[in-house]
Amino acid sequence: MRNQIKITFGSALLLLSSLFSIASFALDRTIIADAANNVTPLLVGQTAPNSKLQTADGAPVSLQALIMQKPSVLIFYRGGWCPYCNRQLAGLQDIENALDALGYQILAISPETPAQLQAQKLQSKFSAQLLSDSKLNAIRGFGIGYYVADETTAKYKSKKNIDLNASDTSDKAVLPAPAVFILDEQGRIKFSYVNPDFKQRLAPELLYQAAKYSL
């Protein structure tokens, strides 16, 4: 029975990680999609791009330099203003020690500026390393960026006082489709989960199992 469960779970992970396989096989993933449903993320077996990011302190950092240190769990999230993102990051605390025991580091990447990340760190207890991709280097490179509709941008600004136009490289607001990538030290993608519905996130226990299977 346990073997059957493992086979079923492994098949489920394969299905999740192949969600966009057919659609994104031969496309230019650096192009920002016109909607979240049309993103074309990198696939399992491909190599993560070497993207230039910033720490919450504003220091430049290379994604390649970070992932060469140890296996990595990359969490792409929309920003500290997003309650679904905050719940996802908070949930990582339940498996942080277990992931660390497996040898993983957690890197959380958003299009927010370093100053915004600093504010998020002060208001939360996230222990994951927060990284700024305000120039959209990683978001483009992983093929998960999409333009936010103007009416949505205006709605966030007028009703919630949230400015989505923080990107340094686009006239329109750009967000990542929430995503999880598990990488080895060579930057090879061992597992991916990308869901254009920002309300749907990979559960911590499933992420842990995916990380364990990816070793």
Automatic annotation (TrEMBL):
Say which species the protein is native to.
Paraglaciecola polaris LMG 21857
Keywords per UniProt? Antioxidant, Disulfide bond, Oxidoreductase, Peroxidase, Redox-active center, Signal
**GO terms, molecular function:** thioredoxin peroxidase activity
The protein here is known as: thioredoxin-dependent peroxiredoxin
Query: Does the record's keyword annotation contain Signal?
Result: yes
What GO terms fall under cellular component here? Answer: cytoplasm
Q: What does this protein do?
A: Thiol-specific peroxidase that catalyzes the reduction of hydrogen peroxide and organic hydroperoxides to water and alcohols, respectively. Plays a role in cell protection against oxidative stress by detoxifying peroxides and as sensor of hydrogen peroxide-mediated signaling events.
State the family it belongs to.
Answer: Belongs to the peroxiredoxin family. BCP/PrxQ subfamily.
Q: What's the EC number here?
A: 1.11.1.24
Chemical reaction(s) catalysed: a hydroperoxide + [thioredoxin]-dithiol = an alcohol + [thioredoxin]-disulfide + H2O
Ranges for domain Thioredoxin: 42-215
Q: Which GO terms describe its biological process?
A: cell redox homeostasis; cellular response to oxidative stress
- Which SUPFAM superfamilies is this protein grouped with? Thioredoxin-like
Signal peptide location in the record? 1-26
The keyword Isomerase is annotated on this UniProt entry = no
